[in-house]
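Notebook B, p. 112. Complex prediction, attempt 2.
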Amino acid sequence: MTFNEFVGLSPVITLGVLVMLQMIAIAVKRHHLFMMLMTVAGLLATLAALQYSTQVLPLDITPLLHANNLSVLFTMLFIFIAVCTCFFSYHYLHDRHGDLEEFYILLVTAVLGATTMAHAVHFASMLLGLEILAISLYTLIAYPEEHHAPLEAALKYLVLSGVASTTAIFGMALVYLAVGEMSFAAIGTAMTGVNAPGFYLIAGNSMLLVGLVFKLSLIPFHMWTPDVYEGAPAPVTGLVASLSKAAVIAVLLNYFVATDILSNSSIFRLLSFLAAGSMVIGNLLALLQDNIKRLLAYSSIAHIGYLLIALLALYQSTNMLLAVEASVVYITGYVFMTLAAFGVITALSRGSTSERHEEVQSIKEYEGLFWRKPLLATVLSISFFSLAGIPLTIGFVAKFYVLAAGIEAQLWMLLWALIIGSSIGIYYYLRIIYAMTLHPDQMSTLSTSADAKGFAQSTPAIVTVVVVALLVLVYGVFPMPLINLVQSALAGM
Amino acid sequence: MLLTLILCLLCGGFIAWLVGLFKPDMARWVSLVVLSLAGFLVADIWLGGLLPNGVIEGQAGLWYNIVNLTWIPRFGISLLLAVDGLSLMLIALTVFLGIVAVVSSWSQVDYRHGFFQFNILWTLAGVVGVFSALDLFLFFVFWEVMLIPMYFLIAIWGHEDRAYASMKFFLFTQVSGLLLLVSILVLAFVHYDSSGVLSFSYFDLLNTSMSSDLAFWLMLGFFVAFVVKLPGVPLHTWLPDAHTQAPTAGSVILAGILLKTGAYGLIRFVVPLFPEAAMEFRWPAMLLGAISVVYGGYLAYAQTDFKRLVAYSSISHMGFVLLGVFAWNAIALQGAVMQMVAHGFSTAALFMLAGALQERLHTRDLDQMGGIWMQAPRMGAVALFFIVASLGMPGLGNFVGEFMVLIGIFSVDVPLTVAAALGLVVAAVYGLSLMQRAFQGQRKVEGDVADFGARELSVMLVMMLALVYLGVYPQPLFDMAAPVVQHLLGGAAL
């Protein structure tokens, strides 16, 4: 490795060093606040390393990784998620007796996995990143290990995700059988070569995509999502909903752009069906939910369906720039609004100790929230209006981008699915906002008992959700800084 | 100036909210001050605007007070605001009815005063934006911005069935809004393909060349969004619920102004952007208009709920607008514009009356009213005036509007004219029966019914004068709308 490669890799190295420092700190003395602050400082140092690394980009680092401005942008997004999660988790975990410092190690390893995925241009690094991320998440989900729900969720995620990984690995093997190479570039050459891609190449790619799509929880690979979202501790649910989705989108973008497999009609059709199904069925199933975490699970299924329109627009190379730009803007917007929603759920919940594991999950518990907790209710409404794609929020900018990409690529059927899906979506987002506006005398007893449960004293969590909500609004009204950022990241492509 | 006007309303909303947190009773005063300020700004534009200070080159029609700031250059989106005669008169109507709304709900809001005024001011800001935006993206943003505060008005301060009504209102307008958004985007990209410039500016998109099939579909997307708002049968079902359940201020704004945004959209966007496609579609559109006139009136007669009755009558009256726009001649179009303004006044007054009655009697059920004239003669007289206005009495604004629409379509299609004229007859039936059931006949309400005070009376008086003025001397309004009408008919092959 040359010096330049070290510079390009410095963010990943910083994360690795951070993990070791965290372990040493635990070995010396356990202290929750110190650990949290150290993690945040380490993540900020990674941000500095990212800035430092941009001077040598774009750069191939070994055959496995490739760093460019886009991977830098994704890494920044991951770090943002992780910093928010630190602040959300602090009070949520604080009353726990026993080991809680390891939570932050797992958080950093999850970011490490995601960062690897954003840099991956080879099956080996893709799989490595995927597994580092997934294993960190299993453990994080099961972190309140004394309680039934998180354990069940973790086990479900472990088993199903294991199956998905195996499918993906088998797909990789088939592709290797057909091409004899595992780097994305070589697969791209084989796909677009003189000979039509053979059966093994298509079958392998399909299996690989099924494995990845499982992590994105597109229908029909969504069964795990509502249970895991419900069972996992709220800050971790936010992490599953934002970090793991964004990481898979990052690696899919790398793969699609390098290999151009979407120009193959079978693959294109497969993904179109998954996207259309997710948009329509995801939204329909969300209608039936009375638990806000399950509702957000189905809503995330639908949103990844929308996002897939932008990805599918990659099938013509003429659309590439707008399509990639739309995907990145969409995932960024989605991360912001999801974090705001789960941040509020976390801030309202009393958190997890060995004796209790209490979260404000039922929609009934949100009744009249506007009058009880105006600030948090406003943040949650902003997040939900954004998820519904109402103007002046980042969700609208994101939806606008997806529509633009879809229209330029003329994906009419998918656009109809989007219109139908988001029409249904408005109903359930509004249902929660309506519940929050209910008069105090109409609220059910559950919502008063929610007050007893909630502590909402977590200043870091509250400040963080307010900041995230402001970002949702500011980028919704003035999206140019975000657009410029994404465009400059794509300038080299 | 336009930007100042919109910002004034938006910031005023925040101030009212903040003031309401500390001194609930002061919030409505803040609203009133902000709206008066907005009124001065409109008057300033009006007086200054009569001398055109900015004409966009190569465009027919005179545009005043152009604001053009870059917003999202990535997509060629700019903050492009301007008014012409039509939009200026609608903006003036908006600000005036805003004051009416605040006054009418002066004592009816019992909690969260600040947030209530915030929602009113933000709805009005959205409507002013809709009437002045000439960038299609910006137009869509304002189109949605006026919805959310209106949703909150219905959902928080509405009557018994507000959950259902507010949800229905939001769903109808949102879903049709999505169609509008997709149509706008497709239009912009078609323009991009043919010219190489991505732009959402109204002036750039005006002469986009496209296949007639595509133009038809895009026109339909715009048409559906606007007809839902208008509302035209069969997309009208949200309206009776929303109007009935909304608090008085909400009903006044909904009926007085929000419905006009649909009509405005038809005149400003559907016809000029897709002249051939709209021309092709004029028969179905006029048929829908005639059906709305008759069916709305017929349903209005069957109601026992005061507000519901007025709501259905709105459907009937707005049917005339649909007829007028698609009759495709100057008289009918002028009539449609007149109808928009006159209906704004008369319906706002009727809803204010309904709100006042509900505040006093705690019911909207006509079967429980009767003989109120005896207890509240001033209220009765005011009601008689506006009911007679809305059923089309000569000498008042509504008559001029409906009559001109009828003359206009007479030269196009006689059977449709006959059918629409039936609407006037039906209007007399439901209007007079409303008057009788509520104000005449047996006294059914025990005790005193407080009559209108000076506050309510003064607002009503202004609206009466406006209607009489429009009815006796409508020429200034026609002059204001004339350039728009000429442009519209000149741009379309007749």
